From TrEMBL, chain A:
<dbReference type="InterPro" id="IPR036127">
    <property type="entry name" value="CcmE-like_sf"/>
</dbReference>
<keyword id="KW-0201">Cytochrome c-type biogenesis</keyword>
<dbReference type="Pfam" id="PF03100">
    <property type="entry name" value="CcmE"/>
</dbReference>
<keyword id="KW-0408">Iron</keyword>
<keyword id="KW-0479">Metal-binding</keyword>
<keyword id="KW-0349">Heme</keyword>
<protein>
    <submittedName>
        <fullName>Cytochrome c maturation protein CcmE</fullName>
    </submittedName>
</protein>
<dbReference type="InterPro" id="IPR012340">
    <property type="entry name" value="NA-bd_OB-fold"/>
</dbReference>
<dbReference type="GO" id="GO:0020037">
    <property type="term" value="F:heme binding"/>
</dbReference>
From TrEMBL, chain B:
<feature type="transmembrane region" description="Helical">
    <location>
        <begin position="382"/>
        <end position="407"/>
    </location>
</feature>
<feature type="transmembrane region" description="Helical">
    <location>
        <begin position="513"/>
        <end position="534"/>
    </location>
</feature>
<feature type="transmembrane region" description="Helical">
    <location>
        <begin position="427"/>
        <end position="446"/>
    </location>
</feature>
<feature type="transmembrane region" description="Helical">
    <location>
        <begin position="202"/>
        <end position="227"/>
    </location>
</feature>
<feature type="transmembrane region" description="Helical">
    <location>
        <begin position="57"/>
        <end position="76"/>
    </location>
</feature>
<feature type="transmembrane region" description="Helical">
    <location>
        <begin position="483"/>
        <end position="501"/>
    </location>
</feature>
<keyword id="KW-1133">Transmembrane helix</keyword>
<dbReference type="InterPro" id="IPR002541">
    <property type="entry name" value="Cyt_c_assembly"/>
</dbReference>
<feature type="transmembrane region" description="Helical">
    <location>
        <begin position="15"/>
        <end position="37"/>
    </location>
</feature>
Length: 137, 829
């Protein structure tokens, strides 16, 4: 067999492996209901329920922040985030959470939020907060 | 609408808009002229097409400079009637940030890109000689496409491009613009996003855009070569430019990661954010292309791969700017812009250059000089080719994952990016890095065409063993062995690259100077990988919350150790090997600098003290915190504020005018009866009554002879600091008043409420009411501190790699000159 054919086969094999691993690694967007039925982490899109309490008291625990979020299907759930409260959280318009259910609480490891900018709606600011974990690798 | 608005400065905008149209028109003109100049077959032509093409391109350059001058004029003079100035700058912004305001918006980014393309085009007019006509056709076409991005034309409901000279009243609708005096109400712009207020933001975008722009040159040469059927010639002319692109784009990307490291709270230099990934697609492919181009130049192998990679690198430039600018990444990236309405225009941009690539490759397919012979297994060209293929595959993986939102859009799927993208990318990219680093080590020992295998294996093995020894040492010393084995293998291969290329460099000093550039670049690359691995792999959060102050123990059990700690002012806390104390904050403009004292304590002795001043900026109605870093040779200590009660985004409440309301801020008062010289204690320190001032005076209150005003001279000692204060007790007429004093720093309010006469005047006592702030009112910060070890390897590696690229450019450029000189001599004969 020619060497170029071997390289071709290797390249195709690696490419397929990449696609499969990517596909298996991608998670899904879901609702809180989906989160209750699965054990894996997933993304939930929704918005903050501003009428309920946002709890963050740095003097008690600087790494505990909880709030209530309504997902896109209208279901509400308490969300707990290990970390400090992201800046301007109250002003967020849309929140994308990454995490999983633990009991009745959704434990978020990452919060991505969109805030309307102060004067106009022509530009949205996206900020991200991550529950910090020690090892990055 | 022919309303006259007061106070507007329309001249720079009108002029700027004129230049925008001129730039587009002249680019189009230049493109057409160059196109016909290239197609002309008659060798005896008077070159008028060529002359017109040059004229058009120069006019285009002038127009672009004109645009820049107009825009800067608008920003510098704070003409907030322009949307661009209003959106990104404000009056309090220092001049150097006004410069970065220039490229804050997407339009400014395009302006930089178009500017650099203009500069490069002028260099090519001067240098390209026989290549000028076809190469400049491509350059002019790029200017046309970029020009449309800035046009800002409104045709019906559709608009083409977005102009930086748009007026605020045309950009935003609002009743305020009915008023001819509306400018009187717009005193200031929105200001710059605080995280962009960093000195790296002044230099990073121009360099990055120069890199982006420079990728058009190898593309143009490849197109010219295929178009003019000068299949082999274009390669050596394009190599120096491709190397230049690698060097500058690489520098730009690393400057961006410097910025991320220093100013953003991503906790590191690289976060695998989609926009960051997009910026290295073209770089990876161009680096691969350079290697294959060199292979072709030396051996005649791999022509198709070389051409394809060179062409596709520039298409990827457009694709990555589509990703960053079209708003498609909105849900997955922190940096992405939102759509300016350019979505389809950007898609068309990608398509134009993709179409050129495909058309030329397909139409010339049968004529391409593709070798039928296989490469030797033990030849340098074969393994360089394999390495390039793996660089391409690594880029392929990045593209596949980063483009998840694009796939969703195209196929209507609902995939979400990986939940732990960092881990996903790290593991897969590390596997590619293993192959690439290993190849860039041993391929250097091979020769083109044919190598003596026995000698090659011996050298390779010796250096591999040597590298393994060093790796073992490093892995052991840094605690790196705790990580996934893939990373240890990457480490081994990177160190192998360094030692292998070290040998090549040593040889090159003995006379084989040709390989010096590549050896240096590969050493830099290896060092960069080592630095990235060590720094990301062994970084340590040292601000672990060990105080036991936790919300609930149950919560703590399932989560990681807490990584933010709470510091009350003036209360030292032990953190890692340090005692840290939050000393207070100082306000400088919009910046709040927090003074945090660090003391390194070893065996009860203070070995080192220093102060870090992380900073929180309030702007655009939000807060943004930037860290302060203590640099050591082998590690950096990075500290940033995640939360504080010192400043709030909510509007300041009215200063409490009522004493009662104010007293709520304090705990219930404690009354002390003391004599001169006595000491009272409170939670944060002591208060000493030094004496009584019988001649106390008060502002605005005239005293008569009958009135008595006595001041209690109090000294407060709290956390090693001494404060003086003097509350006053007064009898005026028949009424008794007291004027309390507040001390912000120690959190005290003191009132002098009673004089208790004794038998002798010296025996008298006074009553002092002490109000102290409750724990919850005390000022605190929540901060996070991370130790990044060996980050300097990363930066050093980058600089060395760039140096290597530079040396290679010099070498390849010389080769081109020698080659053209030879051609000239032949022609003379």
């Amino acid at each position: 067999m020619k060497k170029s054919a071997i390289i071709g086969i290797v390249v195709i094999a690696v490419a397929i492996a990449v696609i499969i691993s990517t596909y298996s690694n991608t998670s899904t967007y879901g609702s809180f209901n989906d989160a209750k039925t699965t054990k894996s982490e997933l993304h939930v899109v929704g918005h903050l329920n501003k009428s309920k309490e946002l709890f963050y008291d740095a003097t008690k625990d600087a790494n505990y922040f909880s709030f209530y979020m309504k997902d896109n299907k209208g279901e509400e759930c308490k969300v707990v985030f290990t970390g400090t409260k992201p800046q301007d959280f109250e002003r967020s318009e849309q929140i994308v959470l990454t995490g999983q259910m633990k009991g009745n609480e959704f434990h978020a490891s990452k919060i991505l939020m969109k805030c309307p900018s102060k004067y106009t709606d022509d530009k949205l600011n996206v900020t991200e907060a991550k529950a910090q974990k020690s090892a990055n690798l | 609408m022919d309303k006259v608005f007061k106070g507007e400065h329309l001249l720079p905008g009108d002029l700027g808009q004129f230049f925008v149209v001129l730039a587009f028109g002249s680019a189009l003109f230049s493109f057409i002229c160059y196109f016909f100049a290239t197609q002309e077959t008659a060798p005896k032509s008077d070159n008028s097409w060529l002359k017109l093409g040059r004229l058009g391109y120069r006019l285009n350059t002038v127009a672009i400079i004109g645009m820049g001058v107009c825009l800067f004029n608008i920003l510098y003079n704070h003409y907030f009637e322009y949307h661009y100035a209003w959106s990104y700058t404000s009056r309090e912004l220092p001049v150097y940030y006004l410069i970065s305001g220039f490229w804050n918006g997407q339009e400014g980014g395009f302006l930089l890109w178009i500017f650099w393309t203009a500069v490069l085009g002028n260099i090519l007019i001067w240098k390209a000689k026989t290549w000028e006509k076809p190469v400049m056709t491509v350059m002019a076409l790029t200017q046309v496409v970029l020009g449309t991005m800035l046009l800002g034309l409104q045709i019906g409901s559709m608009h083409i491009g977005s102009s930086p000279f748009l007026l605020l009243r045309n950009a935003i609708e609002g009743p305020i613009f009915q008023n001819p005096n509306y400018l009187d109400f717009i005193k200031d712009g929105k200001g710059m996003n605080p995280s962009l207020q960093n000195y790296w933001m002044i230099i990073h975008p121009p360099v990055l855009f120069l890199g982006t722009a420079s990728l058009v040159v190898p593309f143009a040469y490849a197109v010219a070569g295929l178009w003019q059927r000068r299949y082999k010639e274009w390669v050596s002319a394009a190599i120096p430019y491709a190397l230049f692109g690698c060097m500058i784009l690489g520098t730009g990307v690393v400057m961006g990661s410097f910025w991320a490291y220093e100013s953003l709270n991503f906790g590191g230099f690289w976060a695998w954010d989609p926009v960051e990934n997009a910026s290295i697609f073209p770089w990876l492919i161009l680096v691969a292309a350079v290697h294959v181009l060199i292979v072709f130049k030396n051996t005649g192998h791999s022509y198709f791969t070389a051409t394809f990679l060179t062409l596709i690198a520039f298409v990827l430039v457009w694709y990555s700017s589509f990703l960053a600018r079209s708003g498609v990444l909105g849900e997955s990236s922190v940096h992405a812009f939102t759509d300016l309405g350019l979505f389809w225009q950007l898609v068309i941009g990608v398509m134009i250059f993709l179409a050129i690539t495909i058309y030329l490759l397909v139409s010339r397919w049968k004529e391409l000089p593709i070798t039928k012979k296989d490469e030797e297994t033990y030849s340098r060209e074969f393994w360089m080719f394999v390495g390039s293929v793996f660089l391409g595959l690594s880029c392929f993986h990045l593209i596949i994952v980063t483009s998840v939102p694009v796939w969703n859009l195209m196929f209507g799927t609902k995939l979400a990016p990986p939940t732990d993208p960092v881990k996903h990318y790290n593991v897969i990219q590390a596997s590619f890095a293993v192959v690439i680093a290993l190849l860039s080590g041993f391929t250097q020992f091979l020769k083109y065409k044919k190598t003596d295998t026995a000698r090659f294996f011996i050298t390779t093995l010796i250096y591999l063993v040597f590298a393994a020894l060093i790796t073992g040492l490093i892995v052991y010393a840094t605690g790196f062995y705790k990580l996934h084995f893939v990373f240890i293998i990457v480490m081994l291969c990177s160190i192998y690259t360094i030692v292998g290329n070290g040998k090549i460099l040593a040889d090159s000093l003995k006379g084989k100077y040709k390989l010096a550039g590549s050896a240096v670049a590969h050493i830099g690359f290896g060092l960069l990988l080592v630095g990235a691995l060590l720094s990301a792999g062994t970084q340590k959060v040292i601000s672990e919350n060990l105080t036991g102050e936790q919300y609930s123990t149950e919560f703590a059990k399932e989560e990681n150790p807490k990584e933010n700690i709470l510091l009350y002012r003036n209360e030292p806390v032990k953190m890692g090997g340090y005692m840290v104390t939050f000393k207070g904050n100082t306000v400088e403009g919009a910046q709040h600098l927090f003074n945090i004292d660090y003391q390194r304590v070893k065996d009860g002795k203070v070995t080192e003290t220093f102060r870090l001043r992380p900073n929180v900026i309030q702007s655009q109605g939000g807060m943004s915190s930037s860290p302060d870093t203590r640099h050591y040779l082998f590690h950096d200590l990075y500290t940033h504020i995640t939360m504080t009660n010192v400043i709030s985004t909510a509007p300041q409440e009215q200063e409490a005018s009522h004493a009662e309301a104010e007293d709520k801020e304090y705990d219930a008062p404690v009354a002390h009866e003391i004599a001169i010289g006595d000491t009272m204690t409170y939670r944060e320190g002591i208060i000493v009554l030094k004496g009584l001032n019988k001649n106390a005076t008060l502002h605005n209150i005239p005293l008569t002879d009958k009135d008595i005003a006595v001041g209690a001279q109090l000294e407060v000692i709290s956390h090693g600091k001494t404060y003086q204060t003097e509350p006053v007790y007064m009898i005026k007429g028949r009424a008794v008043f007291d004027f309390g004093k507040k001390l912000e720093e120690p959190g005290l309010k003191l009132r002098f409420t009673k004089i208790i006469p004794g038998k002798t005047p010296a025996d008298g006592k006074v009553e002092i009411m002490v109000y102290q702030q409750p724990e919850s009112k005390k000022k605190f910060i929540v901060m996070k501190a991370i130790e990044f070890p060996y980050i300097n390897f990363l930066w050093a590696g980058t600089i060395i790699m760039i140096l290597g690229f530079f040396m290679s450019i010099l070498r390849r450029n010389k080769e081109v000159e020698v080659a053209t000189a030879k051609v000239k001599i032949q022609q003379k004969r």
